Input
Amino acid sequence: MVAIALATGEPMPGLPTLGLALLAGLLAVAGILGLYTGLAVGRMGVVAPVTGVIAATLPVIVGLVTEGWPGGEVVAGIALALAAVILVSRSADPGGRRSGIEYALLGGIGLGLFNIAVGAFPEHRVAWPLAVIKAGSLVPIVALVILGRRPWRVPRPVRPALLATAGLDLAGNGLYILATQAGRLDVAATLSSLYPVTTVILAVIVLRERVTLSHLLGIIMAAVAVALIAGGSAAPVG
Output
């Protein structure tokens, strides 16, 4: 991201934006750790939808307060999208396993506040804030590895997938920043919260997993939600 910033001549943002980016990096780590820990020790059918809905709801509330209510189509699309996240994240729960709801709350709040912080970046500032976000995320991760005496070497067979994931993560973060700068925070946050739909679709296509009725209904609802939000965002609000 530093190389991209230098190559494109992106101006260095001011200290408030850099501080906000650093905070966003810390929030991202809190959100991801909460989500992944919850998935590891709790039930996916609880952790995934709770995290996704909270992460989308917090910026939606902020967007409604700061930018006012969007058109009726957008409101309906947001409601459908939140329902779709719940449906596609559902899975069979093994008996006797703890819910992991406390980690889901941490993950949802962390990712939701991250979405809000990123939405406050000034326009035409993407590469420098992203560089600071990733640097800020690195500090607590390194601290956890050192203090927890955890292995830090990545197995060689995993490295290509790791690099690909890092590139996709950067692209997703960058496009989300651009989306918040081009339109409404609540719309950008809601559409980005539909990532579980993509995961389910890829699991069906690539891993040949069976799609359940709730997954299929969630995918259909997500498609309708995207169409409603896109149509409502393009139309002028009277």
User: Anything to note?
Assistant: The chain is about 75% helix and 0% strand. The mean pLDDT is 84. The CA atoms of residues 13 and 125 lie 7 Å apart.
